[in-house]
Protein: Nodulation protein NodZ
Amino acid sequence: MRAFLCTDSALVLEQVSVKFPDVFAIPKQFQAPQAGPLHHPALGAEGGFSALTEMYLLARCDTVIRFPPTSAFTRYARLFAPRVIEFDLNDPGRLILIEDNSQALMAS
Structure:
């Protein structure tokens, strides 16, 4: 099993990489901490390419963990990943498991 991490925080990437040395992440340029979202026009085409690559790869994962669950960035993956785990924003200790999204989508 491999873990794929998408984050707009260099600090999160660093901390997760320490705990899980085999974590896979797309190489990208980060903005300064608290400067706003990673995928910003100031990062040019390279920022857009990394965003599209991450969105596609997330959708190909067996399980996607979404936080926050309102993230537009992970919406595509939520439609196609067979298993999605979301944090309940009203109760962060509660996880919501959604399985077989693509099967339900194909049946509609």
User: Anything to note?
Assistant: The helical segments are 10-19, 44-59, 75-80, 101-107.
